[in-house]
Amino acid sequence: MKKLVGLFIGILFSSTVFAGEVASDCTFKGKKLAGKVQFVTSFPDFKVQIVDSFPDLKVQKVSSFPSDCGKWQEVSSFPDFKVQIVNSFPDFKVKYVDSFPGVP
Question: Is the pTM of this model over 0.85?
Answer without folding.
Answer: no
